[in-house]
Amino acid sequence: MSEAILSAAVTLLVCMINNYYQMRKSREQHSKTIALVEYRLDELTKRVDKHNNVIERTYKLEEVAALQEEKIRVANRRIEDLEKEKKE
């Protein structure tokens, strides 16, 4: 009977040691996965920031272009008016 108890105790001890190392390895893998996800998220955030910056700059350029087009239209109207006055 004592051999059975000893065998059970040793088996239990081996299971506990095995469980400990598996849990430790699992935590290490989890930490690596978390670090990778954080890195990828940071890189994605940088890309989104660059994209948003490009969008903002494009919007400003479109505003400037529209303003320049309006100035050109006004200048053309003035030129046409001056040409009409010369003809008369």
Average pLDDT number: 93
Provide the structure class.
mainly alpha
Question: Number of helix segments?
Answer: 1
Parts with pLDDT < 50 across at least 5 consecutive residues: none
Which series of helices and strands comes N to C?
Answer: H
Specify the helix fraction band.
Answer: over 70%
Kindly provide the radius of gyration, computed on alpha-carbon positions and rounded to a whole number of angstroms: 38 Å
What summary fits the major beta sheet? none
The N- and C-terminal alpha carbons lie at a distance of 128 Å
Task: Please report the total strand number as a whole number.
Answer: 0
The coarse silhouette is rod-shaped
Task: Quote the beta fraction.
Answer: under 5%
Provide a descriptive summary of the structure in words.
This protein is 98% helix and 0% strand. The protein has one helix and no strands. The protein has one helix spanning 2-87. It is mainly alpha-helical and 88 residues long. The longest helix is centred in the middle third of the chain and has 86 residues, at 2-87.
List the helices and strands and how they pair.
Elements: H1 2-87
Defining key terms:
single chain, 88 residues, mainly alpha, rod-shaped
In short:
This protein has 88 residues and is mostly helical.
